[in-house]
Design brief:
The protein is built from 10 helices and 12 strands. The protein is of the alpha/beta class. It has an 8-stranded mixed β-sheet with strand order 1-2-10-7-8-9-12-11, with helices on both faces. The protein is globular. It starts with 11 loop residues before the first helix and ends with a helix.
């Protein structure tokens, strides 16, 4: 047996960003992160410092429902920047305490069951602070393509681990940067790489805003406002799921594979299982964005209520007019939706 070598990291961000790849089925591989958005935050901050957009000691500000906030606070800690987070009502005491200890200042929205209102309040508060403190730099994780840059490293990891055979990336859409950044970089090697996005009902990103899911707490998957970083033309398939289906899959992922992960990971796992059964020749890479700690009370403690994922199936639709709860799937075929999608990375625009 060959002895394993240990790597000494210079900062914790280098340690926690490194994912684990876990085979769940013969053609389903989970790429599991402690905090996926460390890649987005580190890539963005490095680029902004390098091109002089921000300087050491400056305050970076953004709105977040959780994991981006922690990633940005860690990146600021590493590179000598200040951090201010306008936090969603869903940010819990554990997350807020970590942010404050890291030196970030936190504005948290008042309690609300309406995540659309919460999101609008956060953006309004950011604008208010920018008017008051014009030297702050708004990171705009929802809109600035600089957040794509860090995910080229993830694509390289996937390409090395799975060097042959057709790939399909499956993940929550969110801001668009993680799925978009990984898929774009992988397609530079193989244009046949497919991308399947996961959405909650009620999100405007792929046209389900007319629906309401009262239990939905998956703020990181969809959005109540348009995100410029979502490039709709990258996606081959889209699945929409309600909270009950996402919860069933999240509990099922731990029950079947002992993986304690967040709700967006569970949703992507359910979708990947369905797609993999119908496309056995393709390896499906599931993006596991974070751990399950934020969902202990509202998901894992309710595990006895969770349905068996094996009994769940989507309704296949041909257009958004046919969209219906609780789970729908559609061939998106890399087409445009709404205004034109962003096509260029920040570094390409600057060159």
């Amino acid at each position: 047996m060959t002895a394993m070598s240990a790597l000494v990291h210079e900062h914790v961000t280098d340690a926690i960003k490194t994912p684990s790849l876990i085979r769940l089925e013969p053609n389903v591989v989970l790429i599991r992160f402690e905090t996926l958005k460390v890649y987005a935050a580190l890539g963005a901050v490095r680029s902004l410092l390098a091109d002089g957009t921000v300087r050491k000691g400056q305050t970076l500000i953004d709105s977040s429902s959780g994991i981006y906030a922690l990633a940005l606070a860690m990146a600021c800690h590493r590179y000598g920047l200040r951090c201010h987070i306008v936090a969603s009502t869903t940010v819990d005491l554990t997350m807020r305490s970590q942010l404050e200890i890291l030196g970030a200042t936190v504005d948290q929205m008042p309690p609300s069951d309406d995540l659309r209102l919460d999101q609008r309040r956060r953006v309004a508060r950011v604008r208010e602070l920018l008017d008051r403190y014009p030297d702050m730099h708004w990171m705009r994780q929802y809109h600035d393509p600089v957040h794509y840059l860090g995910y080229a490293e993830v694509a390289e990891l996937v390409a090395r681990a799975l060097p042959s055979g057709p790939l399909t990336v499956v993940g929550s859409v969110g801001t668009g940067a993680s799925t978009g950044g990984i898929a774009r970089s992988l397609r530079e090697r193989d244009p046949d790489v497919r991308l399947t996005g996961v959405q909650p009902f009620g999100s405007v990103t792929f046209g389900s805003e007319r629906f309401t899911d009262p239990d939905a707490i998956i703020a990181g998957i969809g959005s109540a406002i348009p995100f410029d970083n979502v490039d709709h033309e990258l996606y081959d398939r889209i699945h929409w799921l309600d909270f009950a289906h996402a919860m069933a899959a999240t509990v099922g992922l731990m029950r079947e594979h002992a993986v304690f992960a967040g709700l967006s990971t569970g949703a992507a796992y359910l979708v990947a299982g369905w797609e993999a059964a119908r496309n056995p020749d393709r390896t499906h890479v599931v993006i596991g964005a974070d751990t399950g700690h934020r969902y202990t009370a509202r998901v894992f403690s309710r595990h006895r209520e969770a349905a068996d994922p094996a009994g769940l199936a989507p309704r296949e639709i041909a257009s958004l007019d046919e969209l219906a709860l609780p789970w729908a799937a559609m061939d998106w075929r890399r087409r445009r939706f709404g205004k034109p999608s962003p096509r260029l990375y920040r570094k390409e625009r600057a060159s």
